[in-house]
Amino acid sequence: MITKVLYVEDEPSLAQIVSESLVSRGFDVKVATDGLLALDIILKETFDICVLDIMLPNIDGYSLAEKIVEKHPHTPIIFLTAKTQPRDVIKGFDSGGRDYLRKPFSMEELIVRIKNLLSHSSPQPTEPRQYQLGSWIYYPSSYELSRNSITHPLSERESRILHMLCKHSNDTCSRKDILMEIWGDDSFYNSRNLDVYINKLRKLFSTEKSIEIMTLKGVGYIFKIRN
Amino acid sequence: MITKVLYVEDEPSLAQIVSESLVSRGFDVKVATDGLLALDIILKETFDICVLDIMLPNIDGYSLAEKIVEKHPHTPIIFLTAKTQPRDVIKGFDSGGRDYLRKPFSMEELIVRIKNLLSHSSPQPTEPRQYQLGSWIYYPSSYELSRNSITHPLSERESRILHMLCKHSNDTCSRKDILMEIWGDDSFYNSRNLDVYINKLRKLFSTEKSIEIMTLKGVGYIFKIRN
DNA sequence: TTGATTTAAGGTTAATAAAGGTTAATTGGG
DNA sequence: CCCAATTAACCTTTATTAACCTTAAATCAA
User: Fold this and answer.
1) Residue A59 burial (CB count, 10 A)
2) Chain D nucleotides near the protein (CB, 7 A)
3) Secondary structure class of B3 (helix, strand, coil)
4) I want to staple A173 with a disulfide (CB 3.0 to 4.6 A). Which of A13, A168, A186, A227 is the partner?
5) For residue A147, what are the β-bridge partners?
6) Paired strand residues for B79
7) 8 A C-beta contact, residue A35 and residue A57
8) The whole model's pTM is what?
9) Is the CB of A218 under 7 A from strand D?
């Protein structure tokens, strides 16, 4: 498989030479020349690895790294920068970087470090397009459940909550995380809103012996799927 | 858990200062001053991470790295060396290194790179997924006990306390540790809360002759499992 | 030294508080 | 008006606190 690299560097001549060099070695490189542009790209596309300069227009590399980790925790990030102080290196690792290479650098070294990270980073767990939930099949993208060629549409809330439970099936899914993810706010903590949806989902799966939404009081839920 | 570091460096003054610095940060450091000695050590002991100089008496760091990878493929290796040429770096990664730091280096940077490798390459010591407790089987991840195909769900508190007892079965488990682990606070020391749960667990296992939660007054509990 | 007494640690049970469940009514945007 | 989303009212379960009891180690008296 071809490796997709996001390379963020604001100095055009450097950007071009490094990018060409990576392409010539078989990488599929996307170059962004400023932080805000890079942010747009990472929200839309996924990459196998990101190579970031730190001093960038609009958003610095550290903040960019944090955003990347937030969205794709398994994508390794290498900083490539003229900042050579230990505290910069530490900041780089703290913001989620997995390697830090000082300018000037050798292209050979960059390549070998990229390969090192790629070969030792856990492969991105690819998100399934559908989930087998007992006798139902759940399609998150179309907000529906189907069984024996009949489909049951889910509302937006129902589907997003179910999707979140599916992504963490057989593992704890905290009430707070669900509230933050679905409503972007956990001051809902006292509201019964989430409970209403859990109740709906439980009713939906009430006939499925292998499916259970278990409550962990004070913590959250476990969506149990037995085989 | 304390992190065991093997540090191989033939220059005594550097070896001492780096080793002291690692120890002061809570690492358990073993220093070897030549390659052959280091080889002996890695054949007998296991480490969480190895930090290697390259130019060493008897066996060079690259060969040592290869030996380490052969025996413990998951133990990350950092090279720490005065050799600064790109081809040396490449050789380092080729021989199984996972990072390469040039001398002179900052102690802070070494620490942060060690932590980075440890946090991204830990094949966690696999913990049992189930425990045989008399005629019950306990599944910590699903918060349930099962016996003869009937399952008994445990509440969050019940399960976490039982899990902790299981992890230390036939060994003392201090009251304070349980309070800290479950409630994150041992000012509960005077509260009867933990006792209430111990009481529930005892009732659960009251019919099991081979299981006993024994009290060590002023200390804690021993969860005895006889075979 | 020995047996009684004190006392701190833990055990037991019930009551209370907090978190969550359920159902129905209300809200608010197409 | 319709329907998903939310709020409200009330119910159930689990966690915590309270009150009182038991036990065993430590202290004390003879």
Assistant:
1) 17
2) 3-10, 13-20, 24-25
3) coil
4) A168
5) A150
6) B52, B100
7) yes
8) 0.68
9) yes
